Amino acid sequence: MKAQSVSRVSSWHGAAFCVAGWLCSSLVGCALIHHNGTPYPAISPEQINLADDIHLARDGWPAARWWTRYHDDQLGALIDQALSDAPTMLIARTRVAQARSDVELVRTGSNLQVVALALLDREHVSANGFIGPFAMNEPALGLTGPWYTEGVVGLGASLTVDIWGKQRAQVAASLGVSNARLAETSAVELEISTDVAQLYYGIQTTYQLLDLLDESHEVAQFSVEAHEARAARGLESRTLLEEARAQQLAIERQTVAAQGQIRQFRESMRALAGAGPNGLPAIEPVALPRSKPALPTTLSYELLARRPDLQAMRWYVEASFDRIDAAKAAFYPSFDIKAFFGYNALHLADLFTHASQQINLIPGLYLPIFDGGRLNANLSGAREGSNLLIEQYNQAVLNAVRDVAQTGSRLQALDAETELQKQRIESVAFARDSVEAHYQRGLTSRLAALEARQPVIAEQVALLTLKGQMLSQEIALTKSLGGGYRAEAPVELMPR
């Protein structure tokens, strides 16, 4: 009895040794990695910052619903409508749903697969084939050939054992793409909201421009009437009349252009929001809000976390790392198990008998040895694709820093120009007030007093243009800073 135990233990040790030797020989016999390549480095934190001479009076990051700082319900309603109905938003949401489906599809590859099988095969057996004796018709021997109706009914199962993590890496890559699509959706939301705000304040600026043009047109019309009356009495030449009329026509042309611009802005907003001809509410004139741009004192990795487009690219890079891992895992043996339980018989009458039961258990090993360079080419392609994404990501980060720096610089310049323009208006207004004071005392004509308003109106138009540009640049800065988006995941890339 003891000898049998010793023999049994020895046999187990021998079997274990054989299995270990088989595994070692399998690993040695695998295809070798020749084209792994070197990962490109990600951008350094020192390159994600602004120059020291770029700063604004206020600092900070935008809020999540950044447009609420303007306290304009009309603007909020338009942005909410666009975010709900814009075709680009629907496309982005569909891409997210598609990516989630892809994750589930890849994830099911490592799960247990069970199928129901049913097969009916009416066949004529070849006398020269593998089961040639069954072609004979000898009932005494149980042979009723050559025609048979074979039936197979049962359950089949398969399971892939993910020893080297290939399946896990593929799932991680799909998850990375799904996360990238989510970040892209936030980027589309930011794009739409800033575009709507830009168009909205473009309309509001043009409304105020029309008010100034109307005021200027009243002065020009009075000037034409006054010069026309003087020319009719022979008190002055017709030249002054035509000059006044030319100025009036120029103002009317500007008015027509401004009205057309409002229609263009509205049509652009309608297309952006995916609204029908009457799908947008009427946009009523409101006063322009006071611009209060803010710029963070430092950017660094915080900018990467707050820019949804950069987060999307980062996830694509992360997914490329997982594809590299999957490509490496393909060099190692893969193991799967297939099984079948059911009934198999050459005669349908015998199909569901006990003797027709069939059980198959088939462990399988796939060992790549000579693949003609396919696996190395796949790994090389995955590595080069990853390096390309890293370089695109690095360039996108530099472009993001550039956008923030350029917009901040423009806002600095516009702020200084606005202050100078206000002082200029005060100087021009002094001359207007002087002429009006002379008119009140009867020292000059009403025409001269009214015409003295024209330079002030022209400077007010210039100031309005600067205010509109500041609002536009402030919204652009909000977009450059991510518009309140904040990623939960870490932002530092670790190439591998």
UniProtKB/TrEMBL annotation:
It comes from Paraburkholderia kirstenboschensis. Pfam families: OEP. It is found in: Cell membrane; Membrane. Its main location: membrane. InterPro entries: MdtP/NodT-like, OMP_efflux. The keyword Translocase does not apply. This is MdtP family multidrug efflux transporter outer membrane subunit. It is a lipid-anchor. Keywords: Lipoprotein, Membrane, Palmitate, Signal, Transmembrane, Transmembrane beta strand. Belongs to the outer membrane factor (OMF) (TC 1.B.17) family.
